[in-house]
Design brief:
This protein has no helices and 2 strands. By secondary structure, the protein is low in regular secondary structure. It is rod-shaped and about 190 Å long.
């Protein structure tokens, strides 16, 4: 046998050497991806204003004055026939 080398389909092949099929190995690269999703939460903050109305009574003195008139009639016996409590 001649130990000549030759090319077979683009590969260097040595004559008289049995060529086996290639061994294929696989590596797995694990890539962790984190997807961030923003979830809004609405928190309503209510401000309640309570108005208190206070009715305060204040004492304000207001002096007033009133006048009362009385009428009285006296008969002093000046007219004949009228009795004025005089003795007769």
């Amino acid at each position: 046998m001649n130990n000549q080398n030759f090319f077979n389909q683009g590969q260097f092949v040595e004559q008289g050497v049995q060529q086996l099929p290639p061994i294929v190995t696989r590596q797995t690269n694990v890539v962790h991806r984190y997807i961030v999703m923003e979830q809004p939460h609405i928190c309503e903050m209510e401000t309640k204003v309570i108005n208190h109305y206070i009715k305060r009574h204040k004492y304000v003195p207001r002096p007033i004055c009133c006048e009362e008139n009385t009428y009285c009639e006296e008969n002093l016996g000046c007219c004949p026939g009228m009795n004025n409590n005089d003795e007769m």
